[in-house]
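Example 3.
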Amino acid sequence: ETGVTQSPTHLIKTRGQQVTLRCSSQSGHNTVSWYQQALGQGPQFIFQYYREEENGRGNFPPRFSGLQFPNYSSELNVNALELDDSALYLCASSSGTSGGAFETQYFGPGTRLLVL
Amino acid sequence: QKEVEQNSGPLSVPEGAIASLNCTYSDRGSQSFFWYRQYSGKSPELIMFIYSNGDKEDGRFTAQLNKASQYVSLLIRDSQPSDSATYLCAVGLGYNNNDMRFGAGTRLTVKP
């Protein structure tokens, strides 16, 4: 176990709805990154938060947004859900001094989202 | 061309053999390189990272990096059935490596 937790574990939504996924980082970690992993593919970087600010973003549309709270937990929000948003959503925490400390990145168990 | 490419496999090796996993990347500005293991239905776990050209060893695992050839590999010595998993290669991009790109993974099966 990495100490990174995510909720919920599974979620079913319909197209057009909105969803919020949550991540609690490992104790002492100030950086959270979010990834989308489609079946049979590697994780795709969505964005990263460092000390409550977005610190980098992958090729995802603006309907993917996030927050990081003072305790360094984080939320991923997806608006106007599409069928292709069905995937495993992973968050990973790390203890960056200036963000991007991937060398100590620990993944949570993920949230599996199904969009019907 | 994909940013990070791996053979999808499956790669099958007998128990005790050396498993060799390969990865190529397209961005010459890449600074950091990672290997993750992902068991079916689980999240990725970090095996090791490498930043400099050459070899880096950690137990039964050796990562090799050749930046000129844009190539990184992972060798697993004395493979065990418990090593059967999907192995993901990841490359850190961007300022302070705040953008990480993964390959699609290579599925490894170690047969007893």
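Chain B touches chain A through 24 residues (CB under 8 Å). The CA atoms of residues 14 and 35 of chain B lie 21 Å apart.
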